[in-house]
Amino acid sequence: MAKTYDVVVIGGGPAGYVAAIRCAQLGLETACVEKWINFKNDPALGGTCLNVGCIPSKTLLESSEQYHRIQEGLDAHGIHVDGVSLNLDKMMARKEDIVLQLTNGISALFKANGVEWLKGHGKLLADRQVEITARDGSVDVVNADNVIIATGSKPIDIGAAPVDNAEGLIIDSTGALDFREVPGTLGVIGAGVIGLELGSVWSRLGSKVVMLEAVEDFLSLADQQIARDALRQFKKQGLDIRLGTRVTATEKVGNSVKVYFKDKDGDHEITFDKLLVSVGRRPNTDNVAAPESDLLFDERGYIHVDDQCETNLPGVYAIGDVVRGPMLAHKGSEEGVMVAENIAGQHGHLNYDAIPWVIYTHPEIAWVGKTEQALKAEGIPYKIGTFPFAANGRAKAMEAAVGMVKMLAHAETDTLLGCHIIGPFASELVQEAVLAMEFHASSEDLARTIHGHPTLYEAMHEAALAVHGRALHKINT
Ligand code: FAD
Ligand code: NAD
Question: Fewer CB within 10 Å, N- or C-terminus of the chain?
């Protein structure tokens, strides 16, 4: 007879594995179905994020940043370095080691919490039955009182540039995290988050990077004042970002790829050693539910859910990249916690208005809440406070005094509505604003909070003070 679990989670990425751990913590008998096979040909947990996403990309961003800084960033400190060289094999081996440590860590967490890992492809059948097809083709079926689908996302393909990671010429992010030599030239289709992060990695390691972006607005989701500053700084670094371009075709020429594209000036072609396609990701719903399950999808192919991540089927939930909302690891994880707590009869919730975004370029870009353009469009009255890192002592000492903090507060209530940062450690700084927004703080609350000196956080403090025209270390306008 088929075994019955309290909860079966399909997918072991940051949404699914966190949901499974939280369910087990709450005393629910939990299994997680996961089919990932890693670069060592072993089954692995952690999903896109740990295997081919957040972790390997941040590892290479850090390594390439160190390499670049030693070459170009130390002169200002009076440090002269000769004979810097790159051992790409070692850099890649470090990345692989970190990925293995973390993915093995999830499997240890499963054991410690009593989560059973069912290795294979999971598929929702009718009546909360889940079919598991193992690597050897054997099929098992289990019953679940609750099912959580967390099958993630995959890159969007475009007909003009078909990806073939095995061939290694036109690649997606997974291919671009695994080059074995630095390409002389790298074309990137799509100047979004992946294009900018991986374009930065290879540019710092020596590639000439050209980005072909379809839309005219750079980083259209970000606050446009910050995005304009970012574009200026990235161009200064040598990233050749061409907005308003449309790739029409590609052609393999020996070991290179020729890209044909149009912009307002007409037709162009450029030949690259490698071409990265990073034009967005789409929900991964391949064979995830049998038709007789009656699971409902929305018009864009995401699994349809409500604010609590409940699908149209009682006891069936979906979380992470496979449902609406930003495709971010922490968003999926928090949905996992919310669903687990609701299954256990608690009152799980998630504040979708306080999800931080981070782009790990140099300088970093991070934000939470509404952009200025969104506030304008929604007719919400707001006040702005900005503070440049050029006036921050710690940023100066770090030789990192670029960018700014921009706070947006409600003009009448002073409630913090958004915070947008471009500058050093923006990824860390933004958390202060996330916490403030979670507690419905006002800009005055941040302005009256003591910030250590000298810290980058003083720029957050000064931007909050600037909302009411009382920044202490800049001339208020
Ligand atoms: P996934 O991580 O995609 O996991 C889904 C899992 O489900 C996979 O392991 C898959 O094998 C498994 N699966 C799918 N179908 C089945 C099935 N039928 N049966 C069994 N298993 C199945 N986000 C950030 O927040 N910060 C970052 O810095 C960041 N960097 C990124 C860098 C790159 C290059 C990429 C590609 C993404 C990055 N992201 C980042 C996005 C982040 O990786 C995703 O938002 C996150 O992984 C989504 O988590 P998830 O659990 O929903 O899906
Ligand atoms: P993206 O949505 O960030 O960027 C895609 C870009 O491609 C957009 O600017 C879009 O206008 C452009 N584009 C779309 N079609 C195009 C075409 N045919 N030609 C040229 N340009 C085109 O998507 P992404 O960079 O692929 O990343 C996918 C998702 O992964 C992100 O949205 C994000 O949710 C997640 N991610 C997050 C991080 C992070 O948090 N630091 C890092 C990497 C990825």
Answer: N
